[in-house]
């Protein structure tokens, strides 16, 4: 195992990166570079699950040709997943990061279950941002959040290097927000500047734990934070997105799914909207 670091990120000891090789050829897994550079900076162990989704054969007579195509595609995806794992292992060795890789070929429900189980054994999981309307991608991210008890960092395309100099904490006084801020403490302590953004009307903010009351708790943990109360612009997610842009944030910390997943899926919600619009990594906890 890597030796403990004297850096504030020493609280991050092991990191899981989960990628799914879908064989489209146009994907650049930003999560791999982000996870590798974070592991390097934190002196952490890196585990990469580079999975190939296994397609089902028809199980019907007179469909031999179709079955052959499915078998061939499964072999192709498995090969791509192995090559991705081998590449990241070489890259990790080049920067002195201890890295464990695995390249399983799994049915989708098995993939979600395996990632969720592996996530329980790591301090955090890193995934690529995907079109949230796609059910498999949604289930993978939710599995990491709801079945592991660990936080997830969702990385947008192109953000393949870890940095967290400036961080926004989305604060609504709720349970999920408190959990996210606490889980993100190593990053908040290491950042150069942190802002606690409270979004909402005056009545709503006063009915919860105000940011000004939460700030002293963070100060006890060595986090000096500025509290920024903001009115809603368009909606809460857009207000947070604009705040991140104005602050030039490298990360937004947010408690995921304040409402039920079913309600967010059908009616929309802050988590859904941020995943679709955020241009910076999201640190999610539930």
Which key terms come to mind for this protein?
Rossmann fold; globular; alpha/beta; 44% helix; 2 domains; 286 residues; 11 strands; eleven-stranded mixed β-sheet
Q: What sort of overall outline do the alpha carbons produce when their principal axes are compared? A: globular
Counting DSSP E segments of at least 2 residues, the number of strands comes to 11
Structural classification: alpha/beta
Overall mean pLDDT stands at: 84
Helix content: 40-55%
The CATH topology of the largest domain comes to Rossmann fold
Number of domains: 2
**Strand fraction:** 15-25%
- H/E element sequence: EHEHEEHEHEEHHEHHEHEHHE
Task: Identify the CATH architecture of the largest domain.
Answer: 3-Layer(aba) Sandwich
CATH level-4 homologous superfamily of the largest domain: HUPs
Quickly name the level 1 CATH class of the largest domain: Alpha Beta
Question: What is the straight-line distance between the termini?
Answer: 28 Å
- Let me know the largest β-sheet: 11 strands, mixed
Question: Counting H and I runs of at least 4 residues, what is the number of helices?
Answer: 11
Low-confidence stretches: 1-6, 262-268
Rg from C-alpha positions? 20 Å
Organism: Methylobacterium durans
Pfam families: Usp (PF00582)
Domain UspA: 165-284
Protein name: Universal stress protein UspA
List strands and helices in order, with pairings.
Elements: E1 14-20, H1 30-42, E2 45-53, H2 64-94, E3 99-102, E4 105-106, H3 108-119, E5 124-128, H4 135-146, E6 152-155, E7 166-171, H5 175-183, H6 185-190, E8 193-199, H7 202-206, H8 211-220, E9 225-230, H9 236-247, E10 251-255, H10 261-267, H11 270-277, E11 282-285
Parallel strand pairs: 1-2, 1-5, 2-3, 2-4, 5-6, 7-8, 7-10, 8-9, 10-11
Antiparallel strand pairs: 6-11
Helix pairs in contact: 3-4, 9-11
